[in-house]
Amino acid sequence: MKEFMDQDFLLETPTAQKLYHDYAEKQPIIDYHCHVDPKEIFENRRFENIYQTWLEGDHYKWRVMRSNGVEERYITGDASEREKFQKFAEALPKAIGNPMYHWCHLELRTYFGYQGVLNGETAQEVWDLSEKKLKEDGMDVRGIIRQSNVAMIGTTDDPTSTLEWHKRLKEDASFQATVAPSFRPDKALNIEKPGWKAFLQELGASAGVEITSLETLEQALKNRMDAFTQAGCRAADHGLDYVPYREASRQDVDAILQKGLTDEAVTLEETEQFKTALLVFCAEQYAKMGWVMQIHYNCMRNPNSAMFAKLGPDCGFDCMNNVNCGGALYALLDRLYRTNSLPKTILYSLNPGENEMLDTMIGAFQGTEAAGKLQHGSAWWFNDNKTGMQDQLISLANLSLLGNFIGMLTDSRSFLSYTRHAYFRRILCNLVGGWIENGEYPADMAAAGALIEDICYHNAKRYFGL
């Protein structure tokens, strides 16, 4: 019986162990999509306890606690930070097979040197150890980033952001990691959702444009894209419930915009026409600027209406959706390819049943601008587990070129989540190592090691122009 999470955790063969320890483990991290706060990086926040680094805003952990019947006051309510941590520690032992169990213990070992197992009985021991450890040099935010060997962080930012913290970080010679904003214009596209009209007023104010038409909306978005470029932006991100594609004339799209501005209800058809027009416009601009376009879709957001009314969005109540977006996604990519305006693009579906569809789709629209211009993004959100990662990697290998894959991201709000890259790298090396041991790939460790290093670091470095 193997020791729990030893140095060869998840590495089942000697070849897998060599690939990880000699090649993958030492590679810098390019965390090109996450949700950390650049202000906390610039101000170099220091956390007081493990609750603040772990449970504060982490809806993955909140779901574990709710699934254990924990009252909401111990999750997002008025219970003390120590009480909330206790409830999480009591629930964690039941998370066998859940990546949360592995993530937590990887973080405890990597950042706090704790070799034990977290549960209700050891919660106080872990609390005291982490509280002491967080006071040490190198355990502030910048120190955590440095010791994690992070080369680049891609945050996710509203078009109206002042980008103040990105600009100040860019000018700070004492901090070596690149912190780049990513343009997230979802609120401008969501004409059917509450708050859209108010957002357009904010967008116009930040862009110096009064938005009264499709043309002025496009100009406002373009102005903000220019500001993002000056702040070092390399990517945009669209979080779509589903991918729409419904063409309409500019005149018709402008008329739909006018309906929204005058508080007149828009139909589903009009909503999709409006979103399609803005998606195409944004993609065309990204292609001109050399940005990467990311599309995340097939998430059912806020299905629990009572808890949404109580807590708002992003509190751990979202789930997978299964809208068939294949036709619309093909049409969108085809429209952009025909007009030579398809940017480098990463596609993520929350529905793992679409792995094969995405892997064949990217093969239909590749280009010479980059090896792997179109990417099937890493296993996202609920798929971010051992099985989900293996399935995504195998599908990509079966139907595309795994050697051009740009690898892992954290998609996290926590500065301790960089161990998810180690988790991914172990799974990757175990998969490739198994193929080599089985005679499915040559036992040329230099070639296999170079491929692993590319997937872990070099491909993303080239792809994002670092």
Description:
This protein has 20 helices and 10 strands. With 466 residues, it is of the alpha/beta class. The chain has a 5-stranded parallel beta sheet with strand order 4-5-6-9-10, with helices on one face. A 3-stranded parallel beta sheet has the order 1-2-3. Strands 7-8 form a two-stranded antiparallel sheet.
Q: Bin the strand percentage.
A: 5-15%
Low-pLDDT runs: none
Order of helices and strands: HEHHHHHHHEHEEHHHEHHEEHEHEHEHHH
The side-by-side strand order for the widest beta sheet comes to: 4-5-6-9-10
Instruction: Report helical residue fraction.
Output: 40-55%
C-alpha Rg, in Å? Answer: 23 Å
Mean pLDDT, rounded to whole units? 97
What general form does the structure show? globular
Number of separate helices: 20
End-to-end separation in angstroms reads 43 Å
**How many β strands by DSSP?**
10
Structural class: alpha/beta
Largest sheet, described in full? Answer: 5 strands, parallel
Give a quick precis of the structure:
The chain has 466 residues and is of the alpha/beta class. It has 20 helices and ten strands. The strands form three sheets. The protein has a five-stranded parallel β-sheet, covered by helices on one side. Strands 1-2-3 form a three-stranded parallel β-sheet.
